[in-house]
Amino acid sequence: MNRKISVEINGQVVDGLVEPRLLLADFIRDNASLTGTHLGCEHGVCGACTVQLDGRPVRSCLLFAVQANGRRIATVEGMAPSATTLHPLQQAFHESHALQCGFCTPGILMTMEAFLREEPDPTPERIRSALAGNLCRCTGYQNIITAVRLAADRLQQTRA
Amino acid sequence: MKPAQFEYDDPQTLDEALELLARHGDDCKVLAGGQSLVPLMNFRLARPGRLIDINGVASLSHITSESGRLVIGAMTRHVELERSTEVARQSPLLTEAIGWVGHSQIRSRGTIGGSVAHADPAAELPAALAALDATFHMRSKQGARVLGWKQFFVSEFTTALAPDELVTAVQVPDQDPSTGTAFVEYARRHGDFALGGAAVTIKLGRDGRCENATIALLSAGPAPVRAEAAEKQLRGARIDESSIHAASVEAVKGLHPTTDLHGSTEYRVGLLQTMTERALTKAAERARSMTG
Ligand SMILES: Cc1cc2nc3c(=O)[nH]c(=O)nc-3n(C[C@H](O)[C@H](O)[C@H](O)COP(=O)(O)OP(=O)(O)OC[C@H]3O[C@@H](n4cnc5c(N)ncnc54)[C@H](O)[C@@H]3O)c2cc1C
Ligand code: FES
Ligand code: FES
Questions:
Q1: Whether B209 contacts B124, CB under 8 Å
Q2: How far is CA B79 from CA A57, A75, A91, A143, B72, in A?
């Protein structure tokens, strides 16, 4: 039986009448028309679909949309503070050449934004370990690590 | 790669959940963190007719300390276990083990109840719980029962749970102050399921000899394996390099982990021996630093 749900995505409430089997990732992409959240493997391994559920990084391919009813979701589209300014993490990725095709980038940004909130001053080893749940087939990861560290420095400066 | 159709219930109390399970039993599946079940459903390797989502049952989500035992509710998420100061103090083996489970995104959702009910032979928590002599608390509409790890884990992906039964909690005896524990594993990439691993506890007596030892191995057989002969060999022994080496040789005797694309039986047996040796060495060091 279809269910009526309403999910807050990036501060806006999105309503839908959905089948229980609809994955949260598909609700975000198709119902909310936010296609920044990518689907790579659909079984929890690649990390491309990572979004934040009530502030925590989760796989949106392993949640049903009905489970997000009444909850708060953040996706990559909500990161930048305005149409002309990037989030410090996005800016650092841009400057450090931390993406090539960009398929993995939204999932990595959502994972790293949550990570830096919890660990504002991580070592490169900690960044590597936090990245373990996101696969990138292009960059070789080095520039991603550089970018996350650069963003950490800038975020700490603005906080200080 | 989308799940087949199913009916969906999201009970808010334990009684409602048990009622639904009693009514639909065989045709339904419990949905906890979904980190093992949903991949299977996306591949359509699992096609349950109905899901009973227990994420709304708040009474299943708790970590409490009760007269010398740590009681961990089934819906306690991996991330909560990882960060619990109570668990770190009373059962540091669980804290060490959980750090090896998947990635942060998986640990945000995955639960201890789901891990033990799923019973993957390569999973960390079942092995750690076997080393700790944990008990498993289960409930159906018919009533409650408690099983030890040996009765609970039956085979790969198979437990003693009946189709209408829920795991409600896992209980772990508090760690004795003269005990040292260690969890060690090897995986090709951090966060992957282990090719082999060991969870051990060593309790030292006043004379510095081993009073008790437990050794549980993961990825060693269809269910967690306790190396009982090796444990016996350590009891009463002085713990040093040679007794640890001898125990780790004993621990893998008779094991036949299956050859697959990740490693042959011989490789896996060798790996398990090394993991046991490392875990025992670490646990002994920790036990010594506790007893000073
Ligand atoms: C990419 C990835 C990597 C992972 N790596 C690891 C790893 O390294 N080590 C590891 O151990 N795990 C790993 N996991 C699995 C993860 O730990 C799961 O969270 C766990 O195995 C299952 O817990 P769950 O709460 O998600 O259960 P679910 O997926 O919801 O359920 C699993 C099974 O248990 C049943 N079940 C769940 N809860 C109960 C209950 N209370 N009573 C009765 N039955 C119940 C369900 O019906 C289902 O059959 C990984 C998962 C992914 C996607
Ligand atoms: S699409 Fe969700 S983890 Fe790959
Ligand atoms: S930039 Fe192409 S997959 Fe990461």
A1: no
A2: 11, 21, 29, 28, 13
Strands B63-66 and B7-9: unpaired
Query: Tens digits of per-residue pLDDT, B11-30?
Result: 999 999 999 999 998 889 99
Beta strands B63-66 and B69-73 are antiparallel
Query: Which residues have CB under 8 Å from B86's CB, separation 6+?
Result: B63, B65, B70
* Identity of the residue in A1, A114, A133 whose CB atom sits nearest the CB atom of B106: A133
Q: Which chain B residues are Cβ-neighbours of A134 within 8 angstroms?
A: 103
What's the confidence (pLDDT) of residue B66?
86
Judge if B16 and B44 occupy the same domain.
Answer: yes
Phi and psi at A97, nearest 5°, equal 55, 50
CB–CB contact A59 B106 (8 Å):
yes
Measured in Å, residue A107 CA sits from the centre of ligand 3 at 10
Residues B152 and B106 in one domain: yes
pTM: 0.96
- For the record, the structure tokens of B264 come out as 């042959």
Is B221 within a domain? yes
Least reliable range by pLDDT among A20-29, B81-90, B190-199, B278-287: B190-199
Report residue B292's pLDDT band, with 50, 70 and 90 as the boundaries: low
Domain match, B159 and B127 both: yes
pLDDT tens per residue across span B140-198: 999 999 999 999 999 999 999 999 999 999 999 999 889 999 999 999 877 788 999 99
User: How far B142 CA sits from the closest chain A CA (Å)?
Assistant: 29
Whether B2 is covered by a domain: the verdict is no
Domains identified in chain A and CATH numbers: 3-78 (3.10.20.30), 88-159 (1.10.150.120)
Q: Which 3 state secondary structure label does DSSP give A44?
A: coil
Q: Do B187 and B281 reside in the same domain of the chain?
A: yes
